[in-house]
Specification:
alpha+beta; 2 domains; four-stranded antiparallel beta sheet
Length: about 240
């Protein structure tokens, strides 16, 4: 009987890992489509006018932010200076409806991120040091940052997924999305709870993202455990 229970538990954890993989494959599929659309807008000689870029990106991301129960809380494209011909990064980034928070209140419709209204956003000018930009630039691959508390907009735990946009080996920006951790919980907890034992979804550094163990909170560092199951296509594991 113990062998049967152990087999069922292992199968349940594997199903939960597949759910994680499927969710992030869906996100990466969106990023790939946005990347292709943005590359189609670039002018090799003069760059892309910011207004034209904003129109293109807005048309791509706003429909997802307007869904009845959106997965994303933010999405868009962050352009390198070479893309727009400017001196700084250009944020074509939209926020979905925001829940009540102590800094910005709440919103009911998508809105474009206005850095000028955030007096503490100067750190974004040093974009080459920021994980969500620098790692895709150096690895030429999609990167998942977090979980971390987003003090710029959401004032809550989020995960950021960014993918490099490149032409001829030249980095011209990143497409990306932000997802509330509590939204990930709604997507992933049913499968994780059905696994038959407490499980924790951890990132590459072993930091907890979603947990069915009440003693493990978001952001806690979880030690290595035997039998951890990798979530294919992501840097995550279920432990």
């Amino acid at each position: 009987m113990a062998d049967v229970v152990g087999t069922e538990t292992s199968a349940g954890v594997a199903v939960a890992a597949e759910r994680v993989s499927a969710l992030f494959a869906r996100i990466q599929g969106s990023l790939a489509g946005w990347r292709d659309a943005i590359l189609g807008e670039e002018s090799a000689d003069t760059g892309t006018a910011p207004a034209a870029l904003d129109a293109t990106v807005g048309a791509l991301v706003i429909p997802l932010l307007q869904e009845d129960d959106p997965l994303l809380v933010g999405a868009g494209f962050i352009a390198a200076p070479a893309f727009t011909g400017g001196d700084d990064l250009h944020f074509s980034w939209w926020l979905g409806p925001l829940e009540e928070n102590p800094v910005f209140g709440s919103t009911t419709e998508p809105s474009r991120l206005d850095l000028a209204s955030r007096s503490y956003s100067d750190y974004l000018r040093d974009f080459r040091s920021l994980e969500w930009y620098s790692i895709p630039q150096s690895t030429h691959r999609t990167h998942i940052t977090g979980p971390y508390v987003d003090h710029l907009c959401a004032c809550d735990y989020i995960v950021t997924v960014t993918s490099p946009v490149e032409r001829d080996g030249r980095m011209i920006g990143v497409v990306g999305v932000d997802v509330y951790v509590k939204r990930l919980e709604r997507e992933l907890l049913p499968a994780m709870l059905a696994a038959g034992r407490p499980v924790v979804l951890v990132n590459e550094a072993g930091r907890a993202m979603v947990s069915t163990d009440p003693a493990v909170l978001v952001g806690d560092v979880v030690g290595k455990a035997e039998g951890a199951v990798r979530c294919v296509g992501t840097p995550f594991r279920l432990v």
